[in-house]
């Protein structure tokens, strides 16, 4: 092969085999690492003096390391050029030698690097470390920060969504209760005062049920021939509904002169219910003067049961009844004793809808009416034997009713039931009937607000952590770009240096800086 053709053959060296290739080609001795260690020991002493001699030198701008142990041959070349360009340390004597001691020491270190091509093995090692470890580490760190920022952004969005959802639920709950949600407890107490108005509204609208009750009762009377118009307790069927229709929201059973207990009076009675009426001092003294002799009481009973002969055989220190008129005086003095007869509760003095038991009875009767009407509608809609027998039994009686009227009555019953099923009414009823419901409802609503605040606080924390991750990534990005640029410069230096050793043949380091992007 001609020498010209051999010069055109490129030299391809894989990055992983570069250090071994340099040693096997005898460009560098096998123990080069020992010599490199001696050079770095001198650099550890020299580097602070060099930086002191170059006060205007920017370490970050020139890509110099902070530690002397990280200095390489290329760094020393940069420092040597900076000292040579300075007027204070760049001067030479007549023999062409530098006059500055720092420059002389640095030039000596460069000679040690160039002896046996120690710099070539070191630079190959630095290239391998940058491409294999340092650059991938920074890239992986940036990817991790990007992933962390994306996860924190998603968590922030989810937290804000949860806070918004719970705040909407809170607003809807407050709207259903008829409050604004500024001061929950006070607004609930204020809203509970309109409960009688809601009851009166229901009582007014139940007027449409008169036709429904009459229809059902007439139907039952026609079917049972008047033998079943009352339930087993003897009360008329739908007694509570009739009371609500005829007398409105008044105590059940209806009494014209009854004193109705409102919510405030009921609350005061719950706080203190006296069993006896208070007495004056004179009355208390008269009670103390009344003495009951237990022996007298026992003797009276024995005389009535066994006669006077038995009474004489047992001495109870009882006077002989023959000495008197023989009659027992039952007119005991009761001055000072005020006896109060309890009526067993105040349910009879509460309006029918304010009494939980009576209110439940009204709702049960409405469901009975609805079930009956729906059954009647089904019987009228389907042809079967029971419907035919019922038609024959009732004939053309008006008690049959048509589908349109039955549907209308069903709608009326459902409308009244919907008033009872209203969330606001049910909550106000619980407020009125339960002494602990107010605290539980207030706590439940406040917990929603607390959860909203907690989610918003977490969203703010996620946003702060995301900003920190992005800020750290922004710091790494220019560092990575600078490292890639330095790595490409190192690879070009190695390729050019090896090329000079082989008559300027083209040298390519495979798997090197060209794989970086």
Structure notes:
The chain has 517 residues and is mostly helical. Helix content is 65%, strand content 2%. Strands 1-2 form a two-stranded parallel sheet. The longest helix is centred in the last third of the chain and has 65 residues, at 437-501. Mean pLDDT is 77; it is low at 263-299, 304-319, 321-344 and 395-399.
What are the salient characteristics of this protein?
517 residues; two-stranded parallel sheet; 65% helix; 2% strand
**Alpha-carbon distance between the termini?**
39 Å
Please give the order of strands in the largest beta sheet.
Answer: 1-2
Helical fraction equals 55-70%
Quaternary form = single chain
Helix count equals 20
The number of E-state strands comes to: 2
Which value, in Å, is the CA radius of gyration? 53 Å
**For the report, how would you describe the main beta sheet?**
2 strands, parallel
Structural class: mainly alpha
Beta-strand content estimate:
under 5%
Pick out the low-confidence regions. 263-299, 304-319, 321-344, 395-399
Averaged pLDDT: 77
Shape descriptor: rod-shaped
Order of helices and strands: HEHHHHHHHHHHHHHHHHHHHE
List the SSEs and their pairings.
Layout lengths: L2 H5 L3 E4 L3 H7 L7 H22 L5 H4 L10 H13 L15 H14 L3 H60 L6 H8 L3 H11 L3 H16 L14 H9 L15 H9 L9 H9 L4 H13 L1 H6 L42 H26 L3 H10 L8 H19 L1 H11 L3 H65 L5 E4 L7
Parallel strand pairs: 1-2
In short:
This protein has 517 residues and is an all-alpha fold.
């Amino acid at each position: 092969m001609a020498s010209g053709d051999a010069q055109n053959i490129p030299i391809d060296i894989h990055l992983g085999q570069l250090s071994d290739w340099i040693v096997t080609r005898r460009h560098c001795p096998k123990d080069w690492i020992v010599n490199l260690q001696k050079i770095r020991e001198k650099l550890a002493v020299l580097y602070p003096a060099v930086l002191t001699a170059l006060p205007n030198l920017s370490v970050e701008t020139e890509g110099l390391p902070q530690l002397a142990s990280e200095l390489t041959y290329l760094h020393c070349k940069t420092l040597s050029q900076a000292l040579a360009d300075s007027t204070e340390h760049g001067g030479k004597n007549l023999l062409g030698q530098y006059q500055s001691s720092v420059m002389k020491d640095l030039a000596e270190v460069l000679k040690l690097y160039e002896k046996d091509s120690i710099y070539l093995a070191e630079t190959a090692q630095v290239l391998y470390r940058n491409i294999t470890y340092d650059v991938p580490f920074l890239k992986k760190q940036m990817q991790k920060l990007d992933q962390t920022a994306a996860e924190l952004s998603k968590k922030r969005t989810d937290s804000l969504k949860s806070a918004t959802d719970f705040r909407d639920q809170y607003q809807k709950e407050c709207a259903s209760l008829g409050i604004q949600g500024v001061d929950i407890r006070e607004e609930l107490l204020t809203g509970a005062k309109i409960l009688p108005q809601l009851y009166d509204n229901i009582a007014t609208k139940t007027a449409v049920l008169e036709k429904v009750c009459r229809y059902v009762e007439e139907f039952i009377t026609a079917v049972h021939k008047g033998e079943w118009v009352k339930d087993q307790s003897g009360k008329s069927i739908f007694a509570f509904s009739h009371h609500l229709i005829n007398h409105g929201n008044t105590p059940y059973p209806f009494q014209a002169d009854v004193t109705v207990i409102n919510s405030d009076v009921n609350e005061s009675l719950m706080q203190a219910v006296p069993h006896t009426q208070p007495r004056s001092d004179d009355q208390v003294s008269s009670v103390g003067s009344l003495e009951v002799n237990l022996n007298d009481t026992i003797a009276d009973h024995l005389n009535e049961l066994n006669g006077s002969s038995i009474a004489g055989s047992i001495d109870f220190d009882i006077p002989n009844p023959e000495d008197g008129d023989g009659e027992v005086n039952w007119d005991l003095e009761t001055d000072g004793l005020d006896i109060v007869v309890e009526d067993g509760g105040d349910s009879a003095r509460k309006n029918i809808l304010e009494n939980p038991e009576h209110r439940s009875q009204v709702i049960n009767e409405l469901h009975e009416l609805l079930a009956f009407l729906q059954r009647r509608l089904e019987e009228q809609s389907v042809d079967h034997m029971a419907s035919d027998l019922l038609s024959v039994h009732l004939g053309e009686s008006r008690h049959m009713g048509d589908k349109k009227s039955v549907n209308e009555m069903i709608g009326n019953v459902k409308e009244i039931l919907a008033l009872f099923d209203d969330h606001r009414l049910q909550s106000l009823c619980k407020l009125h009937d339960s002494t602990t419901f107010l605290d539980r409802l207030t706590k439940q609503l406040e917990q929603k607000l607390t959860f909203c605040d907690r989610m918003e606080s977490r969203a703010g924390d996620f946003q702060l952590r995301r900003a920190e991750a992005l800020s750290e990534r922004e710091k790494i990005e220019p560092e990575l770009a600078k490292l890639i640029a330095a790595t490409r410069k190192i690879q070009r230096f190695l390729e050019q240096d090896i090329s000079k050793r082989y008559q300027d043949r083209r040298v390519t380091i495979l798997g090197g800086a060209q794989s970086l992007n």
